């Protein structure tokens, strides 16, 4: 765990094991923050594992706060976004809660002065709670009454979770509450007081660790009574009872301007991709991971623009174009219940393809398979209710309502075609499915008639109710016998593990499944697709002619890089984003014509390495490789 400690005029980042908090594992000075700011919040971002902090100047009325990414090894704090923001979090004696919402990837900030904010970790700005009103509006003040909320923590704080609860702590009442309506600020009591009166001059902080057994345990730090030595407690979420785990660092001196805030030790994803890059849907997010290391989630992006009432039930790359497609489905709608979308892998934004269609895919418990036929450029859609459709990716319409599936005592909820590679359409392809009822790999030899041939047993027993997802990666450079590599995503656990999906490889000759490992921390997956070999991840790539007009220099660059582009590309503002090797944005700036044809981008806080500079212009996205040294 990580905590902050004030030593003289410096703020240190310390780490310790929650089982032995008296022993500090590390103690380093935090550098890079604005001199006038105090670090008032700390948390690990579930989607990336990065350690985020909030700097705040209580004596300054405007531009008084900034998000930072803190390197836990060096203590260097890198500002997020182009500029500071304005937060009204009270005076130097007010206490501040800071925690990531793992579902939507936004930061909740609360204060003992009743303030309630959401922050965007990508650009370091306040999320506007009322876009219609002028200016930027914060969320509703904490209510009812005059609560003194000094700490906040979300449950299920792992990437890909579909649900979460926000717990907050009142340092005057020494009581745990649930912020039942986070954006309106409504709180309700979660249990009785802890029985420990914390010293408000020292402050309290808390975090919730979500284990892979889907259990949440809450840890809270504070100084009991009049003590100034901060102790670590385990707090029972149900009863509110607090159990001391010991003094932090044998009595960390925490002054009244900052306090022990902490976050679970983040895991840094590897840069090198050793297997296939797989994309999947989980909890309203588009995630990606290496097929050789699925436990480490490389990227997570919230899905946007999904029609109200719909859930994304299928995901696949289109071999003909390399675009990522998804299917939205509303099981309760009686008309136009399905919509085909393209998905921007970088932003998670959906774009509807044609008009909504009516598909009979079953109720909300039905499981649905979705995959492109590379020969004819049509999408096969199957369901555990035995529905069997073809969709047209050009106009989003139904290309065929085929004969219902007729597996022997089967439950078909996944589908994948072979030879789904880029370029010229193949002359042959085979449609494979997984029968979740008897755990067999089958072939849909006559796709339009719904008949099957058994390949063989997978050797595993899946939870059919949790769904099974299946895709086949085609490697045109591999020997013919190994060009098609199949991946299966399924849960084989029970109880709290029922939604903990794992990745398997599947032998297409025998049907045997071989486990790789759990995906992330054990998350429910509702669609999986392998990135097609040779695909460029951009749904709006600029032409080569446009890209040639943009010059980035010097390259390699140190401290600053210049971007030269014609006036035609600056007729609208251009969004410049620097993306690291993990696909994570590390720098963002808006470029405009008033700054001239040559724009300068500061690289002062950018680490050495290879990056992709993405410029979203009116003519499409221009991508340039940039080395920072």
From TrEMBL:
Q: Which InterPro entries match?
A: DUF4394, Secre_tail
A Pfam family (short name) is: DUF4394
Q: What is the lineage of its organism?
A: Bacteria, Pseudomonadati, Bacteroidota, Cytophagia, Cytophagales
Q: What is this protein called?
A: Secretion system C-terminal sorting domain-containing protein
Domain (Secretion system C-terminal sorting) ranges: 552-628
Domain named DUF4394 is located at 12-257, 285-528
